[in-house]
Amino acid sequence: MSVLIFVENWDGKFKKLSFELVSYGARLAEMLGTQAVALSIGNVENSELEKLGKFGAAQIINAVNDHFDVFDGQAFSALIAGFVKQEGATVVVLSNNNSGKAIAPRLSVILKAGLGSGVSKLPLSITPFIVYTKVYSGNAFSNLTIKTDVKILTLAQNSFELIETENKAIVKNAAIDLELASVKTKVNEVQKLSGKILLTDADVVVSGGRGMKSAENWGPIVELAELLGAATACSRPVSDEGWRPHEEHTGQTGKIIAPNLYIAVGISGATQHLAGVSSSKFIVAINTDKDAPIFSAAQYGIVGDASKILPKLVEAVKELKGK
Amino acid sequence: MKILVCISQVPDTTTKVKFIDDFKKLDTTGIQWVINPWDELSLTRALELKDDASNNIQTVTVAHVGLVGSEPTIRKALAIGADDAIRINADPDDAYFVAAQLAHVLKNESYDLIFCGIESSDFNGSSVGGMLAEFLNYPSLSSVSSVKIDNGQFCITREIDGGKEIVTVPAPAVAIVQKGIAKEPRIAAMRGIMMARTKSLKVVDPVAVDSLTEVVKFEMPKPRAACRFIDPENPRQLIELLQNEAKII
Predict the structure, then answer these.
(1) Alpha-carbon distances, residue A95 vs A22, A87, A98, B60 (angstroms)
(2) Do the chains contact at B224 and A297, CB–CB below 8 Å?
(3) Do A188 and B238 lie within an 8 Å CB cutoff?
(4) Which residues of A fall within a CB distance of 8 Å from B249?
(5) CB count, 10 Å around CB of B168?
(6) A8, A250, A267, B207 - which has most CB atoms within 10 Å?
(7) How far is CA A15 from CA A22, A193, A256, in A?
């Protein structure tokens, strides 16, 4: 019995979401009276693996491989299922990111294990096993019972705090079944967004809407984002108009994000937009219309013209940062 | 080549959801049901692929798990341009149940490409596509924003954390699609609406499958505190509040 946490790496490194996953898995293991085991697949150095111990993993399975250079949901699911059985894990925890979404449902079928997607807190109850999940795109939540012996959970990004401990993990090297590595997916090209803070990873996001009026007016948004170490985002009309790339569209059909701070500039806050940002811990809205629905989702608001307000904000942040 | 598009029916995305029976059931009074937005985009892309004769696509079929009440939604998909439809006559219990029903029907069919939306806007589970692929033992590509056909293989763009990958995969495969797959959902024209009435909508009995999960209760989000308005002449105050009161910058 254990909680198995699949911890993905990016070029051999972990990131904040990896540590969130381990913190979550360790707390869950405590609730279940068992231990948290982290599973890493790939080439990760021991010094990096040991970081997982600090967040509460009792053991780390280090499945070293040079063969899974293509991410293939089918192969990864089969491989992880093997470790779940070997460890006798009763709960499997993955991220709700792109790869987690590719693996978790397949794993659910292989193991005939119920799946709770995008959980943001620890289970409400262990017997029966009830988790809290977002439904109707954030307009409601569900208490979902997982009825099977083995449970699979995907954790929403930036929803669980990091909990550092004195714990040191034992790293165990494990062999992997190379037959699983014969994948059908072939990668032809990779386009990386280099040097940018990923929207889904960002703690702070500065976002512009139709109220910005045109692509040329984006300068202060980008500047404010740079000063705050934030990612930039936009509403759907903006990406549809081509003012900003589609990758920046946040909202129901775009990216669903949960930063600590979301600054919405010139965004009215349609239901579909709020569905993508309502899990943000703080929302700041700047809009000319005092009745815009964004203000009912925001903690702080300024009614006014963004072109006048943004430069003043930029100045204030510069002073704050002592620049 | 044959394409299948799995569609789910959801409340219109602007619906203010309400619950009845002590928060156990959705109040369906006055709800406008629509095709799940990502499924509608999938259907649009499937039809675009079929429009290009060089892709040599014979049919685009839609499949749905639901009771007779969802037939207007299926007819809408036929009106938009799908050639025929399959409805598995069951109340969709959970994602596993839905995927198992679809897989059972598809076992004896041969679709080269199966489209599923990345999630449905009601349960947001991102589950059915991957589950279906595993039941069928097909490769699945998730977070897909572009699908092209190249020499009988699929050339697919998928999002990864920090960028995009362009991959190829042979048929049969499941593409689980998100934003970008098609610009705007295709809208039914009058001729399509007329034709939809005569297109084949096959009703299939479900098989016995136990669901793995069950919603025991719904909850409404906690109301947010009222917005604190800051003088537009003094936006500096916002930065001070974020630093000293909210302590987030």
Answers:
(1) 10, 20, 8, 34
(2) yes
(3) no
(4) 204, 228, 261, 317, 320
(5) 17
(6) A267
(7) 11, 16, 19
Q: Where does A204-320 sit in CATH, by number?
A: 3.40.50.1220
Query: B147 - beta bridge partners?
Result: B156
What is the percentage of chain B residues whose pLDDT exceeds 90? Answer: 91
Is residue B167 less than 8 Å (CB to CB) from chain A? yes
Does A141 sit within 8 Å of B133, measured CB to CB?
Answer: no
The identity of residue B173, as a single letter, is: A
CB hemisphere CA count around A310 (13 angstroms):
24
Give the H/E segment covering residue A220: helix A219-228
pLDDT in tens, A21-55: 999 999 999 999 999 999 999 999 999 999 999 99
> Do A204-320 and A3-181 fall under one CATH topology?
yes
Strand partners, A189: B166
Which chain A residue lies closest to B161 (C-alpha atoms)?
A98
Q: How far is A163 from chain B (nearest CA, A)?
A: 18
Token reading at A69? 């250079």
Q: Is residue B16 part of a domain?
A: yes
Confidence band for A321, pLDDT divided at 50, 70 and 90: confident
Q: Using CA atoms, how far apart are residues B109 and B128, in angstroms rounded to an integer?
A: 18
Total domains in the fold of chain B: 1
Its ipTM equals 0.95
Instruction: Dump pLDDT digits (tens) for A64-82.
Output: 877 766 788 999 999 999 9
- The phi and psi torsions of A160 (rounded to 5 degrees) equal -130, 135
**Domain at B97, CATH number:** 3.40.50.620
Nearest-10 Cα torsion for A242, A245, A250, A253: 70
The token pair that represents A287 in the structure block: 């809009």
User: Domain spans of chain A?
Assistant: 3-181, 204-320
Place of tokens 């703080």: A282
**Which residue of B lies nearest to A287 if distances are taken between CA atoms?**
B232
d(CA B93, CA B89): 12
Minimal C-alpha gap between A177 and chain B (Å): 18
Among all chains, which residue has been given the structure tokens 């790939």?
A42
Tens of pLDDT along A108-166?
Answer: 999 999 999 999 999 999 999 999 999 999 999 999 999 999 999 999 999 999 999 99
